[in-house]
Amino acid sequence: MLSIHKFTFNPFQENTYVIHDEDGIAAIIDPGCFTHAERTELENFIQENRLEPKLLLNTHCHIDHVLGNAWVKRKWNLQLGLHKNEVPVLKSVEVYAPNYGFQGYESSEGDYFIEEGQEIAIGKEKLKVLFVPGHAPGHVVFYHKESGQCIGGDTLFRASIGRTDLPGGNHHLLLTKIKSELFSLPDETVIYSGHGPETTVGFERIHNPFVGERASY
Description:
There is one protein chain. The chain is of the alpha/beta class. The chain has a single domain (3-207), classed as Ribonuclease Z/Hydroxyacylglutathione hydrolase-like (Metallo-beta-lactamase, Chain A, 4-Layer Sandwich). Helix content is 24%, strand content 28%. The protein has helices at residues 36-48, 63-66, 69-76, 87-96, 171-180, 201-207, and strands at 3-9, 14-20, 25-29, 52-57, 80-82, 112-113, 119-122, 125-131, 140-144, 149-153, 156-157, 160-161, 190-193, 199-200. It has a six-stranded mixed β-sheet with strand order 1-2-3-4-5-6, covered by helices on one side. It has a six-stranded mixed β-sheet with strand order 7-8-9-10-13-14. It is globular. It starts with a strand and ends in a 10-residue tail after the last helix. The model has no long low-confidence stretch (mean pLDDT 97). Keywords: Hydrolase, Metal-binding, Zinc.
C-alpha cells in the first residue's frame, strides 16, 4: 500500500510530497521547504512516522519545487533523480533565486536521470515514470497503478493546467501530453498536483477548460 502525505511550502504555495510503503520506505518529491520552520515540519513528520527516506525525486526543476533539494540531500544522504532535460532548468535557479527573495539559496545537482517508462521502486511499491513536458522541458509524472494515485507536478491542476510562458514551456505540447499520457489513466486516478488540491482524471477529462470535453481551446 502506498501512502501519500502533502506539505505546502514557500511563498509559491508549492506542494511537497512524502510517499512511503507499508514498511516506511519513503521518497521525497519536489521539496519546496526553504525556511527553518518548513524544514522542521518535514523532518518531524518523517521522524514521528519512523520513515526511512531512500529517494529524492523532482518532477521538474522550477524554483518553487527545488528550494529544499540541497538540504534534503544532505539531511538524509540521498541522491537526486530528475529528467535530463531539467538540468539547465535546475542550474538556472541559482542565478535568479535572489531576485525572488531567496537569499542564501543552496544549489544542487542531479545525481542520476529518470527516463520515460522507467519503474522506480519505493520499498515494495513501484512508480511508473510518465513524460509530460510542456510546463517544463523535462517534466515527469509518477504513477502508482495499484492505488490509482499520481504525483502530477505542474502538469494538471483542478480545472486548470500548468503555465507555459516560462523558458522551455510549450502550450500545445502540454495539452497534447496531458491527453495522451494522463488521460490514458483510469478515470478514478487521483492526481496530486504541484499546487492546490488534488483532482481526478475523470473530473478533468470532462470539466477542465483547457483539455476537457468542454474545453474552449
